[in-house]
Each structure stands twice: as structure tokens, then as C-alpha cells.
Amino acid sequence: MNTPPSMSRPSFFEVSAAERLTEGLRPALQHILTTLSNHVPPLAMLAQRGDEVFYLMCFLLDRHYLKTHNASFAENFYCLKRVKVLPDDTKAPLDDRDRLGAVVCLSGVPYVRSKLEAYYNETNLNLQAFPHNDGSWMTFFRKSFVKLYPYAALVYEGLEYMHAIQYVMGTTRHFSPLTLLLNQRVERLTMADMLRHQRGGGHKPNAVTARPGARNPMESAWQQGTVTRVSIAAKVFAILSRIGNLMADNAKWAVYLGVFVIRFLQWWYSPENQQRNEVPLATPPPPPPAVKHPRGVAIPEDKSKCPLCLRTRVNAALLPSGFVFCYTCVFNHLKDHGTCPVTLRPCRIGELRKIYES
């Protein structure tokens, strides 16, 4: 059953999220490598080669998913797949050549762009710090590269934005110029695709169809002890290959678990949680009340009255000494004397605080 084009065509947000998923994992891997290198010094070389490690993992992961699901890891994460577009605008499954081109564009092109960006930043800083010109061809190349690279990057990004706009407007079914170059389209997985993958019958090229009841030659050789037919190296390679395929198949769940673990660690080591786990300090005792100066004004027995005007307080105001007055009374007193009327301690108008009494 053919799926209508409107149903098979993913939205802009689906394809954009799939493209950004891989790059979003790059800082996380770099952080993990840096943290491990701090505790295990021999791993410092991996932290220095973070880009190579990351894109090599992407290459192997995308290569596996293209073989088994006809989609990259990020595309399969969002239930998408790739199809080949024939000259008559019909669709066909990907072959080995299509998968090779796809994995090169998925992992090779971003790696080259990241290295060019790093080389541009480093060379630009060096030329600004040491603007000498020794006349060598290497200096000429560096200066030319620094001048031309921003324009080349602008043209490439402009093509990507143009394709994205055309994709949103529905004038093209190719989200990026690379998929157009490869004659490939990204579509949603159909129900038939999902059922086939659940049954374990995904796209597995070059698979040999076994007869019903036939035994695996490697398994038979292993059981019969005929090591001469199947070498130990082949067995080890088969076991490692099976383990690698199992890890790749479960990489989607590893992403879910990794996001949860990273969020949990961020919360665990956050300053708020650290303060919550600390033993709270005992509340210090309040300072002793201020002592009335012998020449200070008397304190009325009725605490609701102002010590200056001896009437009920209006617009109460507090001094650092702890005594409360009418705002107008104490303001004028501070303006004239600059001291607390009761303790005669120095006090400025800026230290006066209005309070609200119920």
C-alpha cells in the first residue's frame, strides 16, 4: 500500500530536529572525555582528539543504521527513513552505493566543516598576533584562506537556508542540498516499516537466505570442534560484530538514559542541591538591645508613641539602633544632629527605614 505524499513527507521540525540531534551530542561527549582524562591521564589523547572520536562514532553508528534501517541514527530516532529518488521521480530502496554516499555526507562533511572552522579561527588569531609577511607561499595561503573562507561558508549556509525555506513552502522535497546531490529523500516510517523492524526483518543487504532447518556453519564447526574450518580470529570477529550490532541497535535507548543521567548529575552537583545537603548553621543569637545614652531622649512607657513628639507614631520609621519614631520627627532630627535620639550613635538619613504597622 502506497503512503500519500502528504503523509510520508516529514515536517520541517522533524527533519531539523534529526539534523541537530547529532551535533547536540557532541558537547556531551567532549565533556565526558575531558572528565575521564582528568581521572585517567592516558585518556587525555582522546580528549584532545574529541572531534575525531565523535565523528568516528557517528560514522560507525550511521553506517549500521543505514544498513539495517535505511536511515541514519538521528533519522531513525525520529522515525524517519531515506529513499532513493529515480529519474522518473519514483522511489526505490537504498543500495550500498547510496548508503556510502549518505554516511559520507552525514559524518564526513560535518567533520571537514568543523576542522575548517577550527583552522580558520586559529589562523585568524595567529595573523592578528603576528601580522608579519615573510613572502612565503604558506603565509599567502593562510591570508587568502582567512579572507575567502567566510564567504565560502556564507554561500554554503545560504544554500542550506534556501533549501530549508523551499522545503517549508513545499516547493521541494529535499531538505538540504546534500540530499538533492545524493538523489535521496527523507520520509516518515510507515506502519509496514515499523512492523518489519519489530519482526527483525529490517533492511539487511547481502544477507544469505538459509534453508529451513539448515544449521549455521560456524555454529556447527564450533560444536564439532572443527577449528580448522573456522579460525578463532573469525569467531572472535563474529562475536565482536554481534556485540557491536547489539550496542548500535540499543543506542536509541542509550541516548534516553544518557540524557536522564546528565540531567540527574547536573541537578546533583548544582549549587542549590549542595546547599540543601549541607548541615544548616545554627541561627546566631540576636544582638543585645541598644543602651540608652544618659543624655538621650526618654523612652515612653507606651511603645506606640514616638520618643521625640510623645504622640502616637505616624508613618513609623526605624533606625539601626532598633528604636522606632515618626518619620517626620526622626528625619528632621537626623538632618540637624546626625545621631540616634536615644543612643546618640552616629546615623545618616540613608540608614532610615520606613516600616508598616498594622
TrEMBL record:
Chief site of localization: membrane
Gene Ontology CC: peroxisomal importomer complex; peroxisomal membrane
Location of the Pex N-terminal domain: 19-270
InterPro entries: PEX12 (IPR017375), Pex_N (IPR006845), Znf_RING/FYVE/PHD (IPR013083)
Gene Ontology terms for molecular function: ubiquitin-protein transferase activity; zinc ion binding
Biological-process GO terms, alphabetical: protein import into peroxisome matrix; protein monoubiquitination
Involved pathway(s): Protein modification; protein ubiquitination
Family to which this protein belongs: Belongs to the pex2/pex10/pex12 family.
Biological function: Component of a retrotranslocation channel required for peroxisome organization by mediating export of the PEX5 receptor from peroxisomes to the cytosol, thereby promoting PEX5 recycling.
Name assigned to this protein: Peroxisome assembly protein 12
Organism (species): Lotharella oceanica
